[in-house]
Structure formats: C-alpha cells, structure tokens
Specification:
single chain, 308 residues, alpha/beta, UDP-N-acetylmuramoyl-L-alanine:D-glutamate ligase, 9-stranded mixed beta sheet, 10 helices, 13 strands, 38% helix
Length: 308
C-alpha cells in the first residue's frame, strides 16, 4: 500500500464567462490527489491529513470517505480553517495559483497518526506544501525518520509553489534535505533545472542521479524521463485536447507509484522504467482533458485502452 501524508485542500478553479469570473470547488492537495488517483487506478492507497471543521472541510471529508481508501485518517480541526487554493486558467489550460493559507489546517498533522499509517505502508509518500511552515517541517522530518525506522520506501514530490516561500533560494535549501533522503522523487522540468542548478536536461539528470533512487521528471507535452542507477529512459506522451492542467503531475505520479508498488525497485532497468513512465504519462495526459485534479483522473481501464 502507498500511504500519502500531507495537504488536503479545496481547489477553487476560476472560469471567465462574459467577463465575470466564478469559482467551482474541487477536492485537491497534491498528496490527496495522488492517493485518490491511485485508488482510481486500482492500486492500494491510504491518506493522512487535516481539514477545518467548516463547510469546505466537511465537503473534503465526505469526498475522502467515498474514495474507498485502504486506510484513512483525516483530522477535523476546530481551531484551523480548511486550506484553499484559488486557480485561474489561461487559454491553454495552464494554471496560476493563489493560496489562502495563513494558519490553516493542511499541515496540522498528529505524529501518532502518521506513525500508525507509516507502519501499514510499502511506500510512504510525503507532501511538500507543509515544508513552508516550521511545524510542517517537523512533521516531515518525523515522517522521514519513521519511514527509515520501519524500513519503508520514501516518496517525495517537489511540487514547488513559489508564493508560499520567501524565495527560490530558501525553497531549494529546505527541499534539498528531503530530496536527498527520498527513495523515489518526482520533479517537473522547471523544478529539475531549479534544484540541479543547470538548464540542460542531460546535465541536470546527471546531477540529480543518486544511487538506488528513482528520479522521475515530467516534461509536459514532451512526456517524461526517468533515471535509476544511471539508466535513463525518455518516453513521449499521448496527444489530447488540454482544458485544465491541474493535477496532471499528481496523476502521472499516482500512475508511476502504482506500478512501482508492484515491482521490486532494486531490479529496475531501462525496460521496466519505461513501463513506469508510459503508465504515468497516460494518466497525466488524460487528466488534462477534464476539469479538477481528481475528478479528471482516468480509471485503470481507460489507461489500459491507451496503452494497448
């Protein structure tokens, strides 16, 4: 089972009609998206998070209860409100984010609940939004410690959001520790260049290569690339009509983790890494053809149709 730990929030996606912008509410938060998507892809998934005891929080809790998780622990806080992410889309479906996230619930996790979840997992997937807060970094550090204590694989998605950090330099310094300790990492192409410190794909991959770590990089319309113990695999993606890129990276990673949870990672080679990337690519691409991160994620059967 893959247990995802971190933010659950509402994506408020804006639509412009006749000059008036209205916002539709969708379940969101990168690790929550990943957990939901894994279930849609017939994988085993759990989730640990926190929402406020408010209208949005109750919506998210009800949504999560209907996802069929193999393990679920969402704390309902009477102190902190549910985190919101306002999203506007351009004509190509690309997103701009603005977070409503001062003293909100997404990183207010209980360590005992985290430990209980980690013990049940094969892969522990750690969300990154919590890293912008001191308490969140403490939770992340403890999660890493617990993953090591119980001999679990640690997954980490950079998922960098510039508006919650003071600077890129601050974020790179904070994130580097978790990138170093993870067994499986995912970055976008821009994030790869940011953390490698170079703007050349091959050089950046070489810099990010670490023994026995699976590194996956999404390249948008160009597909994805992975590297494991020096074996590099580039895989193109399928062509779809893009309306909303929200959650595409999460769907890609959910697909990749679902495959990785079923194999012996230590035996990965270029061929098996290609299968991981192919499955992830289709998941991510199909998600961009609909609105909402989780709602637009394809089912396992839909992915298999494209793979065939």
């Amino acid at each position: 089972m893959i247990v995802c730990i971190g933010e659950i929030l509402a994506d408020m996606i804006g639509f412009n009609k006749d000059g008036v912008i209205s916002f539709n509410r969708y379940a969101g938060g990168a690790p929550f998206n990943v957990a939901c998507d894994i279930k849609k892809l017939q994988g085993k998934a759990g989730f640990v998070g926190c929402v406020g005891n408010d209208l949005i929080g109750k919506f998210l809790l009800n949504y999560a209860n209907n996802c069929g998780f193999d393990y679920l622990n969402i704390k309902l806080s009477d102190i902190y409100n549910t985190t919101l992410a306002f999203v506007e889309l351009d004509e190509k479906g690309e997103r701009s984010f603005s977070f409503y996230r001062k003293n909100t619930a997404d990183y207010q996790l209980d360590i005992c609940e985290v430990e209980n979840a980690v013990q049940r997992a094969n892969i522990v997937h750690l969300g990154s939004l919590m890293l912008s807060e001191e308490y969140g970094r403490m939770v992340a550090d403890k999660t890493v410690e617990l993953a090591r204590k119980y001999n679990k694989l640690l997954s980490f998605d950079v998922n960098y959001r510039s508006d919650i950090f003071k600077s890129d330099e601050q974020a790179v310094k904070i994130y580097r520790k978790y990138l170093e300790q993870a067994d499986i990492v995912k970055l976008s192409e821009d994030e790869l260049y940011m953390f490698a410190g170079v703007n050349d794909l091959d050089k950046a991959l070489s810099i990010m290569n670490k023994p026995n770590r699976v590194t996956l990089v999404t390249l948008g319309a160009k597909g994805s690339v992975g590297i494991y113990n020096g074996a590099i695999c580039h895989v193109p993606t399928i062509s779809v009509k893009v309306v909303d890129t929200t959650g595409a990276g999460d769907a890609f990673y959910a697909g990749a983790l679902t495959v990785l949870d079923k194999v012996n990672i230590s035996s990965l080679n270029e061929k098996s890494l290609e299968q991981v990337l192919k499955f992830g690519n289709v998941c991510g691409a199909l998600t961009t053809s609909g609105y909402g991160a989780v709602d637009a994620c394809p089912t396992y059967d839909e992915v298999i149709k494209y793979l065939k």
